[in-house]
Amino acid sequence: MLKQNLEILENAEQSHILTREEIVSLLADDTINQDLFDTADRVRHKYVGDEVHLRALIEFTNICKRNCLYCGIRKGNKNVQRYRLSKEQILDFAQKAVNYGYKTIVLQGGEDAFFTAEILADIIREIKKNNVAVTLSIGELETKEYELLKNAGADRFLLRIETTDKRLYEELDPYMSHENRLRCLDDLRRFGYEVGSGCLVGLPNQTLESLADDVLFFQKIDADMIGIGPFIPNEDTPLKDAKGGDFYQALKVMAITRILLPNINIPATTAMETLNKNGRIIALQSGANVVMPNVTEGEYRQFYALYPGKICINDTPEDCKNCISGKIASIGRTISTELGFRQKMID
Ligand code: SF4
Asked: Ligand 1 centroid to 93 CA: how many Å?
């Protein structure tokens, strides 16, 4: 099996093609992990280079109307202190991020009806005056709302599929439909966003076949960005007793995604670092080329508690910038000064 999987990897490094069975075989074989990570690192180097794109993350509301079973800010969790930043606070954090040199502002929040598309469009127009890219991560919206936000200047949108296993998805995300998720991703593509998706690794009843389907789905929709995170059970959710995801399994899914989608942007996710104190650097050496430092200030960081043990909740934005810059330099990589869009032309 070892030899066969090494051959599979060697071929995929050139062709960027893997079958479902081959992905399952790679995921099941832990003897080839380092070969897989090294292959993904070479593909990353060849297609997107050694620069790391930093995206400044503002977690602007932890109020959400949804009840996803795995999520710490689900509506049903009464143990989390809720907050909603004002427009002035959001613009203040964004301005500071611009002053720190960030080229992308990511606005992330729960599905909070207070923030209508009109309110968000005003905020986006203000931020765009700084010649930075704006990424949204605010869940499912109506088609016309996605259109309005794109017209206001939003560049990118992150909407994880979470899992392509429809049955599992609808079990874990009550009253949400897989079809609507796909409709949202279609809308985003149609309106010209850079489209981000991704999945959780280690969900209860998730199989290797299902993870293989996730990666093939990312390739099928030609995603521009993919965020992969291990599932970390939150004690205030119905999945508190679940086993949770494994750092290396999540890293493997991420590495395979890099091999199949060589020129996309892939973040080293915060959840990776929660499971391994060097997780983001290991991820950057296994296919990732993006880091999303948190620029939300003060106590809000700890209230945006999607999962326990989240890193950096007591740090300031300055701490985060210095810390991640040092880590990136320590592995011989540099921080990009560009807006960091996907470079589809490079081959
Ligand atoms: S995963 Fe997203 S949509 Fe689901 S409860 Fe959490 S914030 Fe809300």
From this structure: 23
209-219 pLDDT per residue, tens: 999 999 999 99
Ligand 1, atom nearest to 72 Cα: 6
Q: How far is the CA of 88 from the centre of ligand 1 (A)?
A: 24
151: helix, strand or coil = helix
Q: What pLDDT shows up at residue 1?
A: 60
Question: Once rounded to an integer, what is the mean pLDDT over residues 313-339?
Answer: 90
* pLDDT tens per residue, range 227-283: 999 999 999 999 999 999 999 999 999 999 999 999 999 999 999 999 999 999 999
List Cα–Cα distances, 167 to 72, 115, 164, 171, 178, in angstroms: 22, 30, 9, 6, 9
Task: Name the residue at shortest CA distance from atom 7 of ligand 1.
Answer: 110
Return d(Cα 180, Cα 186) in angstroms, integer. Answer: 10
Ligand 1: which residues within 6 Å by Cβ? Answer: 64, 66, 68, 71, 73-74, 110-111, 139
Centre of ligand 1 from the C-alpha of residue 203, in Å = 15
Q: Where are the domains of the chain?
A: 2-12+19-335
Give me ligand 1 centre to Cα 74, in Å: 6
Residue range 109-133, pLDDT digits in tens:
999 999 999 999 999 999 999 999 9
The architecture CATH gives domain 2-12+19-335: Alpha-Beta Barrel (3.20)
